[in-house]
């Protein structure tokens, strides 16, 4: 192998692939990235047997070849290089030689024949998703993923398919987030696939990786689902992942269809009040009392403990409906507020035992934005 490429493209390919490698003792090859020439370009592949990532860049090839090299070592080398512009890759035996400007390295590799085969999709893509919308959705819902392996289906994100939209949802049984995204470029066989199965569960690690690969320039992601695998194509990066077997809870039954009381307030006001209140709770799983006072048009947040003392904060709010009192986990409240990117937020309540909702509010119209819902379960005293 003898290849010339820009350092920028090389760094990007390493960045997109090296994160899913790890410290594999039983299969050392999984700690490596496979680098190979293919159809006039350079392909970088990595897998942990659950997720596979392939990144392809344009290069000048003088000699074909392939090799696997330790991901962490090559990543540390290229990330600390000055931006010299071009980088030369050469292979001698099972060693990769890299040189750029005043810096050179020899990295010993392993036989590429031992590298696992990363699955390729058999059919065309089913649909496309706006990349930036998808990234924003992932960032909002991953906080609700369960880390308890006893219910593996809750460690992933559920996707429900409909004719023109997909619903992404995550829950750990204490809170729930749902995001609705419109899809495009729908293939002819999409409805046929919909009839077979309108629901899948994607591992949270997979979606986290996809979100990291999305750049501000990425416009769309193409998606395909085959058997027990999902495929993503974004720019020149290809991600394949297994799906989680199991049935996701019927979470839509948890989301109230109507709410008796609504309070709209400034995001920065509620963030400040909840953060202050959380300092007065005595444990990470502490609690705060939230009162919506319909008469004074205020939200009153109270926290107290024998060890720290007591705190009371009042926030001006535009309220409709009767007054309400509800007890909540402050961390869960902050997790629902932080990802919202509007200056106004709506807090929706029925009573002190039913799920409460946090939603974004459109600044111009004053209406609730319905494509994102965050549900938090109250603490029952």
Describe, in short, the structure shown:
Helix content is 18%, strand content 41%. It has 381 residues and is an alpha+beta fold.
Q: Order of strands side by side in the largest beta sheet?
A: 14-11-12-13-26-25-24-18-22
What is the count of distinct domains? Answer: 3
Radius of gyration: 25 Å
| CATH class type of the largest domain | Alpha Beta
First-to-last CA distance:
68 Å
Percent helix: 10-25%
Tally of alpha and pi helices: 7
Oligomer: single chain
Q: Output the CATH homologous superfamily of the largest domain.
A: DNA Polymerase III, subunit A, domain 2
Strand percentage lies at 35-45%
Q: Tell me, rounded to a whole number, the average pLDDT.
A: 93
Largest sheet: 9 strands, antiparallel
Helix- and strand-based class?
alpha+beta
The shape is elongated
Structure in words:
This protein has 381 residues and is of the alpha+beta class. The chain has three domains: 2-114, DNA Polymerase III, subunit A, domain 2 (DNA Polymerase III, Chain A, domain 2), CATH 3.10.150; 127-252, DNA Polymerase III, Chain A, domain 2 (Roll); 255-376, DNA Polymerase III, Chain A, domain 2. It is 18% helix and 41% strand. The protein is built from seven helices and 26 strands. It has helices spanning 7-18, 71-79, 131-141, 190-196, 204-213, 267-279, 330-337; strands spanning 2-6, 32-38, 41-47, 51-58, 60-63, 66-70, 86-92, 95-100, 103-108, 127-130, 156-161, 165-171, 175-182, 199-203, 220-226, 229-234, 237-242, 261-266, 288-293, 298-305, 309-316, 318-320, 324-328, 344-349, 356-361, 372-376. It has a nine-stranded antiparallel β-sheet. Strands 6-2-3-4-17-16-15-10 form an eight-stranded antiparallel β-sheet. Strands 5-1-7-8-9 form a five-stranded antiparallel β-sheet. β16 and β17 form a beta hairpin. α1 runs antiparallel to α2, α3 packs across α5 (204-213) and α6 (267-279) packs antiparallel against α7. The mean pLDDT is 93.
């Amino acid at each position: 192998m003898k290849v010339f490429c820009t350092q920028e493209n090389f760094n990007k390919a390493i960045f997109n692939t090296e994160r899913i490698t790890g410290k594999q003792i039983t299969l050392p090859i999984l700690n490596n990235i496979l680098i190979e020439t293919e159809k006039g370009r350079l392909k970088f592949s990595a897998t942990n047997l659950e997720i596979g990532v392939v990144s392809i860049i344009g290069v000048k090839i003088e000699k074909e070849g392939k090799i696997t090299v330790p991901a962490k070592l090559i990543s540390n080398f290229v990330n600390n290089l000055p931006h010299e512009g071009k980088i030369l890759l050469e292979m001698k035996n099972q060693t990769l030689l890299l040189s750029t400007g005043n810096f050179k390295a020899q990295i010993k590799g392993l036989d590429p024949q031992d590298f696992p085969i990363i699955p390729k999709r058999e059919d065309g893509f089913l649909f496309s998703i706006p990349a930036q919308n998808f990234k924003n959705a992932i960032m909002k819902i991953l906080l609700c993923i369960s880390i308890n392996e006893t219910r593996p289906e809750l460690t992933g994100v559920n996707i429900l398919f409909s004719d023109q939209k997909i619903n992404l949802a995550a829950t750990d049984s204490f809170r729930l987030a749902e995001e609705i995204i419109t899809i495009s470029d729908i293939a002819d066989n999409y409805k046929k696939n919909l009839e077979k199965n309108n629901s899948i569960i994607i591992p949270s690690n997979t979606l986290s990786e996809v979100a990291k690969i999305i750049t501000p320039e990425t416009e769309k992601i193409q998606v395909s689902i085959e058997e027990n695998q999902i495929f993503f194509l974004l720019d020149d990066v290809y991600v394949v992942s297994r799906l989680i077997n199991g049935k996701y809870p019927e979470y839509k039954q948890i989301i109230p269809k109507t709410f008796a009381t609504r309070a709209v307030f400034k995001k920065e006001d509620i963030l400040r009040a909840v953060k202050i209140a959380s300092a007065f709770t005595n444990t990470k799983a502490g609690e705060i009392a939230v009162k919506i006072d319909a008469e004074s048009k205020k939200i009153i947040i109270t926290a107290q403990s024998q060890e720290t003392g007591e705190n009371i904060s009042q926030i001006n709010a535009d309220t409709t409906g009767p007054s309400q009192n509800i007890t909540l986990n402050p961390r869960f409240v902050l997790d629902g507020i932080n990802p919202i990117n509007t200056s106004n937020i709506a807090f929706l309540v029925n009573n002190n035992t039913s799920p409460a909702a946090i939603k974004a509010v459109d600044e111009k119209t004053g209406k609730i934005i319905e494509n994102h819902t965050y549900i938090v379960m109250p603490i029952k005293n």
